[in-house]
Amino acid sequence: MRKITRVELIPLKLPIIAINDDVSTHIINSLEKEKLEIIDGDVFVIAHTIISRAEGKEYFLPEISPSPFAEIIARKTGKDPALVQLIVDDASKILKVKNNIIITKTRHGWICANSAVDQSNAQPNCAVTLPDDSNKSAKKIYKKLTKHLKRDLSIIISDTHGRALRRGAINVAIGSYNFPVIDDARGRKDIFGYELTSTIVALADEVSSAAELVMGQAGEMTPVVIVRGMQFRSPISNIEELQFEDERRLFK
Predict the structure, then answer these.
(1) Does CATH number 2.40.50.100 belong to domain 7-56+131-242?
(2) Which of 11, 124, 237, 246 could form an S-S bond across to 222 if both were Cys, CB 3.0 to 4.6 Å?
(3) pTM
């Protein structure tokens, strides 16, 4: 049985990130400014927006030329055709178009609204897309932070997604490094001694949602949250384990 402990959520303020900024350096500078000491096991949950912006994934909409296909969807949804073009470009499949929402499967494998293209926390007349490879981005940050801090850390890249059958959005994981994305509880015993046979916990999503409680969605300027006190029972796993194969999806 895992010992129950206290989990802390520590928000970290960063400046507005610009293209080609080193996110790791900004994190280190903020830690030093706040005089925060990092310990082994700390998990850094990082909003993808700052990584996307640093990696040049923020686009000025007036410079985008929408295709005829994007124009058609724009008329159906009432969206800016340039914004629709970004959504189409980041989609491997368009699953549904209804009201003002475009449900897609992104080229990264995620099922979400509008290919996760977002104008919140973007500069005026701009939109931000997901990083090309959030796992690669997480690994890069991990290497620099661990080299500087000399601690055993984990990195999660998060984004805010809606849910098919529930109102409201939550933070979920879209990239990670050195973290047990899935906590497989099968084989463990419940409080009455029965063996669990199907319980698989999306641990990375749970941690991302917890971090969002102090990260916020508006002008908080805290795109990084340190989650402290986690105790891992499962081995390190890949973010792709959170994705269902198409044939196993119950809701399509």
Answers:
(1) no
(2) 11
(3) 0.91
